[in-house]
Amino acid sequence: MPRLPTSSPRLTERKRSAIIDAAIDEFRVSGYETTSMDRIAARAEVSKRTVYNHFPSKEVLFAEILRHLWDAIAGGEAFAHHADRPLRDQLLELVAQKFRLLNDEAFVSLARVAIAAGIHSSELALDMVARMNEKEEGLTVWIRAAAKAGRLKIKDPVFASHQLESLIKGFAFWPQITLAQPPLDAATQKKVAESAVDMFLGYYAL
Length: 206
What we know:
This protein is 73% helix and 0% strand.
C-alpha cells in the first residue's frame, strides 16, 4: 500500500507562507545579520526543520522574500510589447509598475537590510543584486521586442533598460534608501515618470 503524504499541499503552502511572513518581520526588525533561522521558525510557529525543508539557507530565503514582495505588488503583471499602441503609453505603464514596488514600505525597508548585509559580504551583495535584477528583466524583454519591431534604435537592450531604471531610481529609490527621504507623492511620480520616458524615447525612438 502506498504511503499517505504527511501533509497536504495546502498545508505545506500555508507553512511556506507563514515562514515568508515571519521572515519579513524578522529581517525588518532585527536586520540581516542578527536574524536567524531559529527566530524565523519560532515566529512562524513551525519547526526549524520545516524552515530548511522550504529554504536551504538564509540567503535563499531572503532572496525569495524580495521576489515575493515584487510579485505581490506588481500583481504578476508581465507587459508585452504591442505594436499597435504608442510606445510612450506602454513605457509609462511599465514605470508605474516599478513605482508600486519602490513605494512599498516593506520592500524599501528590506532593501535597506539587503544593502547593509551586502556591505559586509560582497558575495552576498552580488547574489542579491543578481536575483533582484531578474525582476527587471521584463523591461529588457519589452525593449528588445520594440527594437525588433523597428520602433526603437537600440543595439543593447540591457544597457538601455539600465539607463531607464537609473532615471527612475535616482529619484524614487536611492534617496529613500540612503537618505531616508519619503516616497514620492503622486504629482512627483508623474513628473519623474513622464520626463524619464520622454528622455528615453527622445534618444531611442525612431
